[in-house]
Amino acid sequence: MNLQLLLIQVFNGLVNGAFYALLSLGLAVIFGMLRIVNFMHGALYMLGAFVAFALGQTLGLGFWPSLILAPLIVGAFGVLLERTLLRRLYGLDHSYNLLLTFGLTLLLQDLVKQEMLSQFAVSSAPYTAPASLAGVVNLGFVVFPKYRLFVIAVSAVICLITWFVIEKTRVGSVIRAATENPVVTRAFGINVSAWITGVFGVGVALAGLAGVLAAPIYSVEPYMGAELIITTFAVVVIGGMGSILGSVVVGFAVGVLAAIGAALYPPIANTLVFILMALVLLVRPNGLFGLPEGAR
Question: What residue ranges carry the coiled-coil annotation (predicted)?
Fold first, then answer.
């Protein structure tokens, strides 16, 4: 492999890694703060793409308004789910919310499929990137599509902001306190229930944002998140369940490694992340950045 081809693969990997990072970040926020195994995260990623597409088809909204509105709509949907369904399962075994979110995934996929067929007469549809991000950028050592560079940049900035808020601000301190010791936190007059709902909504909105960013690269279709969520769970496990930094770093790293591995030896492309996960767990059962349960 020559140097230019290697660099192209690295940038392609960073694009995939951008989606892994955003999705695994949302999963890490939800699991790390709330201990909820949210199996429907891939379906919420798909919902973000579908909402952006539907806003364009029905209201004529372009990419930029949809980039803001679609994650907010998906986040609001997540808040509704937490308030009406998931809240009833707190304190129970993780398998209960895993089964619930798996069932909701199947329901959401079928609903979107029926909606696309009945309202738009398509089973999958392209989504056009804004004209301002069309074309390519000459980086000197490689020529790369402008929109894909935008995806990498947005993902990195959002991940950095999320990490900073949770780890370095008073808001993050309240979130951690509300989820780790709700009884004591309530004693200080803090509405723990509202904070938990807000955290879940933010985690879901991150999945919706990833879906909107992915829509111009991949076609919008009901099962676009089905395979991606398996890899995303592997990323979260490698980084350490609940580790914000681990999810971001490993998300980008897995994207790059998978892209290079696919170029060098294509048959290994779909299994490389799981081989990496097995090797990491043999050495560090809590993941690269994870802490033992008692240390959290």
Answer: none
Per-residue pLDDT reduced to its tens digit, 106-125? 999 999 999 999 988 888 89
The packing angle between helices 192-214 and 170-180, to 10°, is 110
Domain ranges of the chain: 13-225
Are the CB atoms for 86 and 97 separated by under 8 Å? yes
Token couple for 217: 């690269």
H/E element, 201:
helix 192-214
d(CA 111, CA 291): 39
* Paired residues of 220 in beta bridges: 125
Question: Of the candidates 294, 278, 216, which has an alpha carbon nearest to the alpha carbon of residue 19?
Answer: 216
- Between helix 226-239 and helix 41-59 the angle, nearest 10°, is 130
DSSP state of 69: H
pLDDT in the model for residue 272: 87
Asked whether 70 and 48 are in contact (CB, 8 A), the reply is yes
Sequence-ordered list of residues with C-beta below 8 angstroms from that of 153, at least 6 positions apart, any chain: none
Sequence-distant (6+) residues with CB within 8 A of 261 are 268, 269, 272
pTM for the model: 0.92
Rounded Cα gap, residues 287 and 285, in angstroms: 6
